[in-house]
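Journal club prep — side note

Before the paper discussion, L.F. wants everyone to see what a predicted structure for a comparable chain looks like in token form. Sequence:
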Amino acid sequence: MQTPRHAVSLEEQIDQWRSYLRRRQAIHSVDVAELEKRLREQVAVLVDAGLAADEAFLVAVKRMGNLDALSREFAREHSERLWKQLVLVPSDSGELRAPGRTDAIVAFCLAVGAAVAIKMPALFGVQLDEHKAEDAGFYARNLSLFVLPLLTVYFVWKRRLDARTLLWLAVAFAAAGVFANVYPFTARGSTEALTALHLPIALWLVLGIAYAGGRWSQIGGRMDFIRFSGELFIYYVLIALGGGVLTAFMAMIFKAIGINVGPFIGAWLLPCGAAGAVLVASWLTEAKQSVIENMAPVLTRLFTPLFAALLLTFLGALMWTGRGIDIKREVLIAFDLLLVVVLGLLLYSISARDLRSPPGAFDVLSVVLVVTALFADGVMLGAVAARIRELGFTPNRVAALGVNVILLVNLAWSAVLYLRFVRGRGSFASLEKWQTDYLPVYGAWAAMVVILFPPLFRYI
């Protein structure tokens, strides 16, 4: 049975309206579902009253526009549509009202809180000094706990989360604080380094629950969090670059008058600025999505072929020379970070793609990237397994083995689903579902490393 033409048109219009809402600061993604439900109810009532579907949609948008300034903004940016005449109702001053500044005030207050938190241990004699092994280890293990709880508070406030969710979030962060500090780690040991690396991953997914605001169980909620993470990374890098320029000029101009500001920069400006910038970048990501949403997909399209070429060259050189991979901790971390970046490119390209678009040249490039990453991961996995057989188990090798197995499973099934889509035998939505459903696996593995590895390997 074919879908009537007017029904398809209605769904297309609602889909465009929904997609637009998700990209704007005036409304949060967690509220889109509720607004769409309200819109559909209005359309259904109007259709029952005798209006055609397209007419009912326009009238419903008009009613929604009277309640929500975002619909009016949508109408203004789509001036060629009848929506402009129907829903663009200017304010008394002739302009739409600017969003309130409450978000900015809360975000900057929490940024100051993060800057203060990272210096609080100094009151107890714990200094941010890399030359003191115990102090450096403490800061490495707890770095995410200085920032992510405050960022979670920001989203709890924005999303108006219920008390039960808030309790679970508090328990998760409290447990993280306990496991990061209760174990008798060996200074500069492997299990301490693994905790420092994996705890932020586990807590980042806890943050995702707050960000999704009750939609974490839905594909759209998890994909919104992926999109937020990518855009936050871009904003943070931009802030870091600007901060680096500021720091360089500060050192230069004070040096000109004989003042060495190096200790201040190292002890105060860099750690406090780095911590507070996470909150500021998150607020910018929320507030300026219309600015960054066009940049991020362009960067994804730029770096996808470059990383595909890098991995192809690496595999070619590996086969040509016949050399094995030197398995050291730095190499393991660097290689796994490379695979994570590749997976991040895949995730963000999925989040920025229109699910209804047919396969194109970029999809072919993405398949090449995924397949080459899959082979590279297989090579790395084989090298780690061989080293374990030869020299035995160590925390770093077991952690590398586990994360490479997890990446291998993700990349393998992603390659299958993407190939099906490119060949016209599957939908892109199935690939999106697979990636979002797989996110908790990373969090579970990271939590396992933090909780089980230190006692399992005697805190070395």
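L.F.'s comment for the group: The chain has a mean pLDDT of 80. Keep this in mind when we get to the figures.
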